[in-house]
Design goal:
Layout (H helix, E strand, L loop, with lengths): L1 H22 E9 L2 E2 L6 E12 L2 E36 L2 E62 L16 E8 L1
Parallel strand pairs: 1-3, 3-4, 4-5
Antiparallel strand pairs: 1-2, 5-6
Keywords: Signal
Length: 181
């Protein structure tokens, strides 16, 4: 009886392990999200190369347009655009966009985070709904900031008040530097 239970448990463990391994792949090659080696719902753990890819991933992504679904992580190097739902890591492209949250470093001409940013944005224009970190660029905008510093030509944190809570916050808009702690 013990052998039967042991063999049954071992079989279940092996089946679950093989299903988990089957759900992620080490590499993705794509022309578009629909013309790719693996379906866009397949998680990629390793490397994605393509003209335009869109997978949940923990990977190095190199392409013209790199998209990621769900909670993804890694280094995305896009020659035109990186976009993600939630991303942890580094996004480098002329345009970087995250819908929910970003943790890491976005660097490009335009960096746009609809949700929260925890980390660093460097670019000509940086936007965040909620900033915890640093924005370095010509125009920096944070709708809200928990702890943040902006360095640039135009720096906007609308929730700040004009010099009344110094040194914890500076102003709603400033040239060269603005912050909120």
């Amino acid at each position: 009886m013990k052998k039967i239970i042991f063999i049954t448990c071992l079989g279940i463990i092996m089946a679950v392990a093989s299903m988990a391994m089957a759900e992620s792949k080490p590499i993705q090659l794509s022309l578009t999200p629909d013309i790719a080696v693996f379906d866009r719902d397949t998680e990629i753990r390793g490397l994605t190369l393509g003209i335009w890819g869109e997978n949940p991933q923990t990977a190095l992504a190199i392409g013209i347009v790199n998209g990621s679904k769900g909670n993804s992580a890694g280094l995305s190097f896009g020659f035109l655009l990186n976009y993600a739902e939630s991303y942890k890591g580094v996004q480098w492209a002329p345009v970087n966009y995250t819908k929910k949250s970003f943790l890491g470093w976005q660097s490009g001409i335009v960096n746009y985070a609809e949700g929260s940013v925890k980390g660093l944005q460097t670019g000509a224009v940086n936007y965040s709904d909620h900033l915890t970190g640093v924005q370095f660029g010509f125009v920096n905008y944070a709708a809200k900031a928990t702890t943040g510093v902006q360095i640039g030509l135009i720096n906007l944190i609308p929730q700040n008040q004009w010099f009344t809570r110094f040194p914890d916050e500076l102003a709603p808009g400033m040239v060269f530097v603005n912050w909120r702690f």
